[in-house]
Amino acid sequence: MKPEQLLEILGVANNLKLNTRHCYTQPDRKESVADHSWRIALMAMLLDGVEEYKEFDMNKVIRMCLIHDLGEAFTGDIPAFLKKNSDEGKEEEILVNWFGSFPEPQRSEWLALLAEMSALETNEARLYKSLDRIEALISHNESDIATWLPLEYDLQLTYGKEQMKFSPYMMELRKAVDDWTVRKIEESKKAVE
User: Fold this and answer.
1) pLDDT in tens, 99-154
2) Residue 52: which domain range?
3) In this predicted model, what pLDDT tens digit does every residue of 81-90 receive, in sequence order?
4) What is the mean pLDDT of the chain?
């Protein structure tokens, strides 16, 4: 890859640092798309060595986590409760076109990763998707509950559950996050009383 190509790709990817997501990481600072992608990649690294995942290609999972939201460099983030299939299709089309402009071997690798992620048929793709979902829940639990929309009280306890069912470890993690969510909601109710 020529240095100019690398700089051009990094320039587009830089938008992920600027494009914000729905929740706050701290008062007055919204989470960026890059924050989210970095943390799910970190989660994948932390899961490397977990017995259940010993046969998984965790390097591939980390790579999926790092590139999964690159379409949002072009479209911005759309919260899950507003995102439609057509929005996901548009993001994927943008990525196919953009990745298709990359030099080899990146073009082939990134297009193959994108196809695998979209199909959700491999263990690696299912793990990346479940990490994508659980990280959003963790971020919301870390946010001040005053920033939550009314629909998020229920969404916190249902979002992504289906994607996690393939993995006992992810279901155990999900239970811990759900317990945290319930405590957070109960504490906020007590604070109002």
Assistant:
1) 999 999 999 999 999 999 999 999 999 999 999 999 999 999 999 998 998 999 99
2) 3-192
3) 877 888 888 8
4) 92
CA 21/CA 153 separation, integer angstroms: 18
Question: What is the number of structural domains in the chain?
Answer: 1
Nearest to 44 by CA among 28, 20, 56, 61: 61
Backbone φ and ψ for 20, nearest 5 degrees, come out as -95, 160
How crowded is residue 149: how many other Cβ atoms within 10 Å of its Cβ? 10
- Find out whether 163 and 151 touch, Cβ atoms under 8 Å: no
Q: Could you read off the pLDDT of 124-135 as tens digits, one per residue?
A: 999 999 999 999
User: Which CATH number belongs to the domain containing residue 154 in this structure?
Assistant: 1.10.3210.10
Question: What are the start-end ranges of the H helices in the chain?
Answer: 3-13, 15-18, 33-47, 58-67, 72-75, 85-100, 106-119, 123-142, 152-158, 161-164, 168-192
Nearest CA to 138 among 109, 164, 108?
Answer: 164
pTM here is 0.92
